[in-house]
Design goal:
The protein is built from 15 helices and no strands. Helix 1 packs antiparallel against helix 2.
Length: 396
Amino acid sequence: MTDAANWNGWFALVFALMQFVCSPLLGVLSDRFGRRPVILLSNLGLGLDYVVMALAPTIGWLFLGRIISGITTSSIPTAMAYIADVTPKEKRASAFGMIGMAFGVGFAFGPAIGGLLGSVTPRLAFWVSAGLSLTNWLYGYLFVPESLPTERRKNFSLSRANPVGSLVLLRSHPELWRLAVIQFLAYTAHNVFSVWVLYAIYRYAWGERTTGFSLMVVGICTGAISALLTGRMVKRFGEKATLYIGQFFGAIGMFVAGIARNSVEFFASIPIISLWNISMPAAQSMMTHRVSEQEQGELQGALQSMRSITFIIGPWLFLRVFSWFIDPKYALHLPGAPYYLAAALLFAAMLMSTRIKQDAPAPPRSTSIPPPPDVVPRESMPSGPIAPITGPKENI
């Protein structure tokens, strides 16, 4: 089990490194050429990646598959930018919540189907995934229009596509940077799911079917909460309160998962942890308010780069913590330690969230037209009569 935890850590590291390098590149390319071609290319590549993994004769080929997968899955920030393009600012939290619901539904059916297919043969799951991904590409090709008009596109820049340089955008506004740090802690905590399967097998002796069923329950709870609760919470309490309330329940749920003595108690932690999902759309929405409309793709690419850093750190961290605390060489036996660590990270993020302003939009970092002064100097006022403003009121 210790060796399995270590191998999973290496696979997660390769995947995260590819996302870190490619996410900002795809985000900036989507700002230049539009969202649609980037999304289509990524879905096509993901389908081909699953074919490679289905045919993989050795672990080395599986690593190649993870490299391709890390590159192609970088389309997620482009999809988030697409949502920002077509949704008014005040409705973005709900829209991001609907995407959370879509992920939840996929997460509900995916592991359940994967568990059933894996019990037949592990390769069958990859073939089915390849078929679904290629079907997804075909659907996008036929039915998904472009969301970014030509006049709102931005010139390509290597400095913005650089995975390190892209993070500069996150420091362009103090509140944006605070939100980025909060999300960094939350994304790191989310990587505790990398030990979910090994933890359940080790502590509760679960098989493939029970593990798949548990992840299906996670997906159902995630989808239901994202779809039914996020919009209502934001409307009633605002994005800031929704952010730290979700993080509070996430921390409590992680603690319950760590102390759970049996399968029933562990299952009881799932809906509590899932309440955390209301905070993610709220944070995403608050961050989109603090950059210009021309920088939405760059923002999502930068966020995905930051998230990729947590993918590099998080799985390795939680898997190492898990393997250390179950290793018989050490006196302290604490298999729930990864969940206690995740709870601590979310609690720290919650405390930071209480200090964020509700909404503090920032002007674009660069523009060809300087903003008008707050007060027009007396010497610049026209000396002649001022023509009355005419035209429809809505134009005014």
